[in-house]
Design a protein that fits this description.
The chain is an alpha+beta fold. The protein has 9 helices and 22 strands. Helix 2 packs parallel to helix 4. Keywords: ATP-binding, Hydrolase, Nucleotide-binding, Transport.
Length: 390
């Protein structure tokens, strides 16, 4: 059990390209005189037994951050504290941290039991206590029947359970997991996600989990940290980042299908706000009105975000936007319509066939849709920031 604090953490890799200049970007990462900034000014307080998920696209710095916590990467700046003790210069073995890798990293010549015993042998734990620990963890992970097998005789999901078992058998203060499910097929990933949710209820440890899969982030994390180009974009509960994205990147990254984005105009008149889109005026909710008024937001051109599930089919008229169906995707219990409207390809979700009312939703047909002012998100056109939170 442990609290983990990251204060202004950064990671700089030496710049090997002589032509790179200060301020240039290399692979979307900032290049300075020091080198390539892989992680910039990372700040986070992780509570005891909290499950934190670092999520973002490939190359955003999430695995680098995890490896700095583990001691596998040197920290270029800032402080890492575990239970208040500075860890920057402490060797990995002195941090009381265990790590589960994407590739399992099991010893092929050892049995499952021997793999799980290995970190305990390094601690010179008595044989009886070692057997007890391994048996208890194997029961938790439902791998007791595999203890005498070698890794090559196991499936991917079974190997991943063994890797997790080897990590938690020594009861670390912090358990780090670097994309542990990415090598599994979709069915096994779903199964292992459920197992991880059960596991965190049964063991007293702090989890830091890295993934590029937003479904894993939303279902596993107490809080999620969304990163882009080495910079933290937003930290919050899954519901907070879904309902109140800090910027366009977060809005587009969290949620499936992605949030629709329109060019629109925000109108402010006597402290009241509305949005004009496709000839339709949308009055914003009282909550959004208050937030914009508090930030003294003025009339301006904006990017308007609306999640597909918040769009409904409507009758053609002054309060509805009309578009042409370009793609119709049958998803079983839902239909995803790609509609060309307001100069943008928009995804509309019809949740069930019963809600279509017999309307023609085939490719090439014209449909009308609407959405309420409580469901829209208003972003600055230049910076991409959510105008409710500036």
């Amino acid at each position: 059990m442990a609290e983990v604090t990251l204060k202004h953490i950064k990671k700089v890799y030496p710049n090997t390209e002589k032509k790179s200049k200060k301020g240039q970007k290399k692979s979307n990462l900032m290049v300075t005189d020091e080198g390539v900034l892989a992680v910039q000014d990372f700040n986070l307080d992780i509570k005891d037994r909290e499950f934190i998920v670092l999520v973002g696209p490939s190359g955003c710095g999430k695995s680098t951050t995890l490896r700095m916590v583990a001691g596998l990467e040197e920290i270029s700046g800032g402080e890492l504290l575990i239970d208040g003790k500075r860890m920057n210069d402490i060797a990995p073995k002195g941090r009381d941290i265990a790590m589960v890798f994407q590739s399992y990293a099991l010893y092929p010549h050892m049995t499952v039991r021997e793999n799980m015993e290995f970190p305990l042998k390094l601690r010179k734990m008595p044989k009886d206590e070692m057997n007890k620990r391994v048996d208890e963890v194997a029961e938790i992970l439902d791998i007791t029947q595999y203890l005498d097998r070698k890794p090559k005789a196991l499936s991917g999901g079974q190997r991943q359970r063994v890797a997790i078992g080897r990590a938690i058998v020594r009861e670390p203060k912090v358990l780090l997991m670097d994309e542990p499910l990415s090598n599994l097929d979709a069915k096994l990933r779903n199964q292992m996600r459920a197992e991880l949710i059960k596991l965190r209820q049964r063991i007293d440890t702090t989890f830091i989990y890295v993934t590029h899969d937003q479904t894993e982030a939303m279902t596993l994390g107490d809080r999620i940290v969304i990163m882009k180009d080495g910079i933290v974009q937003q930290v919050g509960t899954p519901q907070e980042v879904f309902d109140h994205p800090a910027n366009i990147f977060v809005a587009g990254f969290i949620g499936m299908p992605q949030m629709n984005m329109f060019d629109a105009k925000l109108i402010e008149q006597s402290g009241k706000y509305s949005v004009e889109l496709g000839g339709v005026s949308i009055i914003l909710s009282e909550e959004k009105q208050a937030a914009l008024a508090k930030n003294n937001v003025k009339s301006q051109e904006i990017t308007l975000g609306i999640r597909p599930e918040h769009i409904t089919l409507a009758e053609a008229g002054k309060d509805a936007i009309t578009g042409k169906v370009d793609v119709s995707e049958m998803m079983g219990s839902a239909i995803h319509l790609h509609v060309n409207a307001c100069g943008r390809d928009t995804i509309i979700i019809v949740q069930t066939m019963d809600l279509t009312g017999g309307e023609d939703l085939s490719i090439g047909s014209e449909i009308s849709f609407a959405f309420g002012g409580n469901a829209v998100h208003v972003f600055n056109k230049e910076s991409g920031e959510n105008l409710e939170f500036i």
